[in-house]
Amino acid sequence: MSFFKPNYKPANESYQYPLSRSFLYPDIELVCDVHFSNRKSITIQIKEDLTIHVRAPLYTKPKQVNTFIESHKSWIYEKWIALKEKIPVKEPLSPSEMKRAEALERKFRKAAKEYIPYRVEYFHQFTGGNYTSITIRDQKSRWGSCSSRGTLSFNYRLMMAPTHILDYVVVHELCHLTHMNHSKEFWSMVESIIPDYKECKKWLKEHGNELSIEAYLAKYN
Ligand SMILES: [Zn+2]
């Protein structure tokens, strides 16, 4: 069966942004982020932050992506474990530090639930589009997402970022309600609202890993 079927119009699901698939192997849940682009074959990449990325040609059926992942389960697992073992183990938190960290996380999550919808509502007047709900999550190395059903998700750790960075992520996801991709049109829409968005992107890339409870505690202890 070919991965290319020029007449095949993907189901809406293919455009869900971003698409992810998870599986258990043997008892570890591994999550693969699926990206569709103008390429010829499917590949798998495991990044240093242990995120797994499956890159597939445009119009690949979700079922084919699943089959591909299914047949590469043990390969993905082995590579992932090997990479994980290379990462130095952090000193575990003491019970009192753990308590502080948990309290702090609750505080940030609560603040995110109150503050982020307010920023979404503010910027929505400029972006338009329809969103159905806003959820606050903790997705490792993902700051926000926008599903085809209009659910906007944001990482609570954004509350530790400067406000203009949080605003950039909010605008980014809101613009996905109009453009479900990272096309030129998408970026020019982002730029019309956040003129220095490139700086924000760069900041997140360079400082994103500092937005963690552990880093926050170490800094403000
Ligand atoms: Zn995006």
Structure in words:
Helices cover 45% and strands 18% of the residues. The chain is α/β, with parallel strands linked by helices. The protein has two domains: 12-86, no CATH class; 95-220, Metalloproteases ("zincins"), catalytic domain (Zincin-like). It has a four-stranded mixed beta sheet with strand order 1-2-4-3, with helices on one face. A three-stranded mixed beta sheet has the order 5-7-6, with helices on one face. Residues 1-17 have low confidence and may be disordered. Bound molecules: zinc ion (ZN). Zinc ion (ZN) binds at residues 172, 176, 182.
List keywords for this structure.
221 residues; alpha/beta; four-stranded mixed beta sheet; three-stranded mixed beta sheet; disordered N terminus; binds zinc ion
